[in-house]
Amino acid sequence: AIPTGIISAGFVERYSKEQNREKGFTDIRELGEVLVDEQSGLEGMLIREIERDHGAKIYMLLRDELMIIARAELKVKKGDILILNSEKLHKHE
After folding, report:
1. Pairwise CA distance, residues 66 & 86, whole Å
2. What is the pLDDT of residues 18-45, one digit of tens each?
């Protein structure tokens, strides 16, 4: 009975991951953050422009003490922190 439960739990976990993948959920480990400053070159850009030009999916941004859901027409400002996913993202451990 124990091996059956373990195998069943594995199938359920795999199924759940596949279902969530279709819904567009992202594992938190796949996210990163980018500071909008002079070096980033992102100041004044719209979210949709950044996503298009840099192949990123931006989920939210942190501005002052606010968490703002990223909308296509939202313009980023200096000091914003973008929470995003990108194949170009390199994590610093």
Report:
1. 23
2. 655 555 555 556 788 899 999 999 999 9
pTM for this one?
0.65
Token pair for 80: 């914003």
* Cα distances (Å, whole numbers) of residue 92 to 29, 32, 33, 46: 12, 10, 11, 26
Of 56, 55, 39, 50, nearest in space to 73 by CA: 50
Please report the beta strands in the chain, taking only residues with DSSP state E, as ranges in sequence order.
32-35, 56-63, 66-69, 81-86
Vertex 52, ends 19 and 31: CA angle to 5°? 45
- Can you name the residues that pair with 35 across neighbouring β-strands? 81
